[in-house]
Amino acid sequence: MIKVQNLVKRYGSKCAVDNLGLEVQPGEIFGLLGPNGAGKTTTIRMLTTLCKPDSGTIEIAGHDLRIKRDAVRRLIGVVPQERNLDLELTVQDNLMVYAGLYQLDKRRQRVDACLDLFGLAAERMTQADKLSGGMQRRLLIARALLSQPQILFLDEPTIGLDPQIRRGIWDSIATLRNEGVTIVLTTHYMDEAAVLCNRIGLLSNGRLRMTDTPGNLQISAGSFMVEAPDSNGIKRTLCPDREQAEMVAALLPGALIRPANLEDAFIALTGQEL
């Protein structure tokens, strides 16, 4: 569904995206995992036609983005990081206005279906600025799905939300995957990437360091983490198996052994923290 080759974007002397290449398969959730400033949002903006790359190519469902921008826009839905709702309108009217802009057929039916899918039907006449942060995020995703896109782009979909609301959003995203929607999301939450994504790309300083399944990324870095106090705080050592972890721990007073997680893998593979 998505094929990116040698993608580059610079802002002055800063290279925000550096020779990025990736492929996203139909029906999968692909995550770009990285800290703030890694190039995640810039990548999404290029993939969704909002800014032009300095070099490289992007194909969306077989369309070359350089010459088929309008065709691509008809295939995609975008949920930005910022909550760019019309706060003076009701939930229903936010969707109806958007449906009108897209000149959708059977607009009321599409609006009703999206309200039901995201648990917003009871709030249809509520003004958008009266919604909680989680409900506003649900409304943004519902709005992006009005045109029934083949590909949905989610830029930090749960940023700033509490854990319970985040998990509700995760359930909605998983439902979309089960319905065959291809999803690309950015996140700096390792638990979000581990739970949702079929594959993850580790993005650091504009470069894609590695792409694999969450499980394989963890294994590639090490299966167990040994943590022990030292003069600088905590000394951490990744080990490939339990036997080696126990050998390392035996040499370090106060050491604890725990299973390694995706954040450990990210730090080991990129040298950066999330």
What structural keywords apply?
274 residues, Rossmann fold, single chain, 10 helices, 4-stranded antiparallel β-sheet, alpha/beta
Q: Could you characterize what this model shows?
A:
This protein has 274 residues and is an alpha/beta fold. It has two domains: 2-212, P-loop containing nucleotide triphosphate hydrolases (Rossmann fold); 222-270. It contains ten helices and 13 strands. The strands form three sheets. Strands 6-7-8-3-9-10 form a six-stranded mixed sheet, sandwiched between helices. A four-stranded antiparallel sheet has the order 2-1-4-5, with helices on one face. The longest helix is centred in the middle third of the chain and has 16 residues, at 163-178. It is globular. The two termini are 28 Å apart.
Q: Give the CATH H-level superfamily of the largest domain.
A: P-loop containing nucleotide triphosphate hydrolases
How far apart are the first and last residues' alpha carbons, in Å? 28 Å
The total of helices stands at 10
Q: What does the average pLDDT come to?
A: 92
Radius of gyration: 21 Å
The order of strands across the largest sheet is 6-7-8-3-9-10
Whole-number tally of structural domains: 2
* Residue windows where pLDDT falls under 50 for at least 5 positions: none
Task: Count all strands and give the number.
Answer: 13
Q: What general form does the structure show?
A: globular
Largest sheet: 6 strands, mixed
Query: Pairing-aware structural class of the strands and helices?
Result: alpha/beta
Strand content: 25-35%
Query: Which topology of the largest domain does CATH recognise?
Result: Rossmann fold
Please state the second-level CATH architecture of the largest domain: 3-Layer(aba) Sandwich
